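Figure 6 in text form: structure in, sequence out.
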């Protein structure tokens, strides 16, 4: 159980920490320092390197989370809440990966900066939503559900 919890927490750190870094530090710095073509190339390259880690985190979160739930005689509402939020986050990630990220890669390859900017804008919004959900999930894990 402790190893499953460790894998679960490390996966959270990678995914939520990566989103926090991208949203709160890389994005503002890229806006200040780079023109749109360079900014889009940076994001496409960064996501290409980060998303395999997110895939691993998603698989470990699902596997470890459901394994730990299966070991419980009664699954508390807090755990069900965390699982529900986590599943929504995973669905958002799947959409980001297969839709706007795919469009971003195609746009950068074709040097279609307008389409790339639109795809990146959609990714930004969805990553922001997922970041908030991830922080809420951490709060639920530590504080429980409101009564």
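Output sequence:
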């Amino acid at each position: 159980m402790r190893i499953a919890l460790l894998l679960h927490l490390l996966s959270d750190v990678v995914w939520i920490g990566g989103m926090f870094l991208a949203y709160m530090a890389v994005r503002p710095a890229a806006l200040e320092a780079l023109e749109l073509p360079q900014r889009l190339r940076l994001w496409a390259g960064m996501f290409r390197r980060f998303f395999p880690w997110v895939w691993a985190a998603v698989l470990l979160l699902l596997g470890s989370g459901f394994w730990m739930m299966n070991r419980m005689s009664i699954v508390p509402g807090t755990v069900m809440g965390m699982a529900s939020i986590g599943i929504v986050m995973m669905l958002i990630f799947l959409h980001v990966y297969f839709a706007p990220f795919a469009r971003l890669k195609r746009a950068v390859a074709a040097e279609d900066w307008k389409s790339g900017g639109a795809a990146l804008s959609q990714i930004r919004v969805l990553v922001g939503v997922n970041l908030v959900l991830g922080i809420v999930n951490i709060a639920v894990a530590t504080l429980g559900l409101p009564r």
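Caption detail: Residues 2-143 form one domain.
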